[in-house]
Amino acid sequence: MIQDLITQSSSDSLELHYVLLTELADRFLEGNPKLHDIGKITESTDRHGFRDPMAIDKTLNDGEGGIVEGNGRLEMLLQIYESGHPTPRGVKVTESGEWAVPVLFGVNAATESDAIAYAIDHNNTGMFGGDFTALDMSRLYDPKAYTEILEKLAEAEALPTAVDGDDLDLLLEQLGANSGFLNVGTGMSSSALDDDDDAGDDIPDSPVRMVQLFLNKDNHPNFMGWINDLNDVYGTTTLTDCVLRAVEDAWKASEVNSD
């Protein structure tokens, strides 16, 4: 049923249909860089009901169709459905006990690149008007996956409205591998830490990523493990002293490079 709705969807008008939740399980946007707080989305849905339908664009996932807005909501619904969570308002229950959820079809993008650009704009434009920079908005995403997608969109001349060429250059400078937090002034590479049994597998490669890990309760222990490694390098004993030393070394390195 869902494939028929995707195929028949109009490029000029929107239609809302209730679709079995299980039919959406393989419709996630491939390579989606957006970070999600599933717990908070669940709390909001429990309180307010499921009032923000997901949307499918037929050009995504190599023309098979995928979720262009609402990937986090879909992940949340699948999790709470499997766990036996009470049915949120706005979600229907079929006679067989399955959940059916509201999905928007139509107003498809001209190309897959345009659809991905819209997916990013749908997240970012909510921050317009608040004096947020492109770097501020980037905190919504996994840095590596975000910059890779933006580079591909730039090649296709399809950058999102929220990110122009100058923004992309800044993001690549700040979030790219060449701005590695662990490499600046320490003489210590990410690969060196990979040999440490106490270090995590996903060594962060930028200051922004380090902050994201610090704020994420699941990754916080790994973050502190990396800080302890840097304390050994610097001879510092506290998080504050370690970060200040890293900033000082980064500043000195930038002065050397500028000379």
Could you please describe the fold and organization of this structure?
The protein is an alpha+beta fold and 259 residues long. It is 48% helix and 10% strand. It has helices at residues 2-8, 38-48, 60-63, 71-82, 112-124, 134-138, 143-155, 165-175, 190-194, 207-215, 220-234, 239-258; strands spanning 14-20, 54-57, 66-69, 92-93, 99-106. Strands 1, 2, 3, 4 and 5 form a five-stranded mixed beta sheet that branches. The longest helix has 20 residues, at 239-258. Mean pLDDT is 83; it is low at 177-203.
Structural topology:
Layout: H1 2-8, E1 14-20, H2 38-48, E2 54-57, H3 60-63, E3 66-69, H4 71-82, E4 92-93, E5 99-106, H5 112-124, H6 134-138, H7 143-155, H8 165-175, H9 190-194, H10 207-215, H11 220-234, H12 239-258
Parallel strand pairs: 2-5
Antiparallel strand pairs: 1-5, 2-3, 4-5
Helix pairs in contact: 2-4, 7-8, 10-11
**Total beta strands:** 5
Q: Would you give the CATH topology of the largest domain?
A: Conserved hypothetical protein from pyrococcus furiosus pfu- 392566-001, ParB domain
Strand fraction equals 5-15%
Number of helices: 12
- SSE pattern: HEHEHEHEEHHHHHHHH
Please outline the major beta sheet.
5 strands, mixed
Which ranges are low-confidence, i.e. pLDDT below 50, for 5 or more consecutive residues? 177-203
Structural class: alpha+beta
Count of structural domains: 3
Mean pLDDT: 83
Shape: globular
Summarize the amount of helix as a percent range. Answer: 40-55%
What's the level 1 CATH class of the largest domain?
Alpha Beta
Q: Would you identify the CATH architecture of the largest domain? A: Alpha-Beta Complex
Rounded to the nearest angstrom, the radius of gyration is 22 Å
CA distance, first residue to last residue? 64 Å
